[in-house]
Specification:
By secondary structure, the protein is of the alpha/beta class. Helices cover 57% and strands 12% of the residues. The protein is globular. It starts with a strand and ends with a helix. Bound molecules: BIS(adenosine)-5'-pentaphosphate and magnesium ion. BIS(adenosine)-5'-pentaphosphate binds next to α1, α2, α3, α6 and α8.
Amino acid sequence: MLNLILFGPPGSGKGTQSEKLIAKYGLKHLSTGDLLRSEIAQKTPLGLEAKSLMDKGQLVPDAVVIGMISSALETNPEAKGFLFDGFPRTSAQAEALDKLLELKETSIKMMLAMVVTEEELVSRLLKRGETSGRSDDNNEGVIRARIAEYHNKTAAVADYYKKFDKVVTVKGEGTVDEIFGGLCKEIDSTLD
Ligand code: AP5
Ligand code: MG
């Protein structure tokens, strides 16, 4: 299996690049943000609980997202591999993911970490907020809170995978195709 983590702060292009990567490499896309927004749209109790935290730019509890990923892994037994987008976001989530993959006798091949300056992140997300309807995009304070959560809790996840020499950094600014080219180059170099 080819299991990849696409990593980066809010607005770094994880969702945009995920669509292209799953098409090229035949992977199953698992975005915890998308899974949570689908729970919100269906007005489930989990969705309602998550919404109040997401609207403030805060992370939802580890147990919630770990549970969602665990069932997604179970319901996709035929997948050639998974592309994790927006997960893991805490060290506890990273450890849980390793254990879940171990049960499937597989592991993370690499973490692709996209680097984008904070001002570019804020400008991308404010621009998307004009049309996306995402309630966490239309307020600069909430966008900055999401970036602060990233620095306080999520950046350390890269250190976790660095211990296993699994992290590669990729330029996250430029055109979508240029960035995609950089990601593919790194992935292809591990497939040889
Ligand atoms: P999530 O949905 O994961 O949002 P995020 O990390 O804040 O990031 P985004 O999805 O906004 O950005 P992205 O990196 O996917 O970039 P995109 O491609 O969209 O999480 C939302 C919330 O859910 C969290 O705040 C938290 O509350 C909760 N949550 C989710 N997972 C969790 C977890 N594991 N644990 C706990 N809580 C969790 O691009 C952004 C914009 O930029 C788009 O408009 C795009 O068109 C544009 N763009 C993309 N590439 C380029 C480019 N090269 N040049 C110019 N513009 C570009
Ligand atoms: Mg996203």
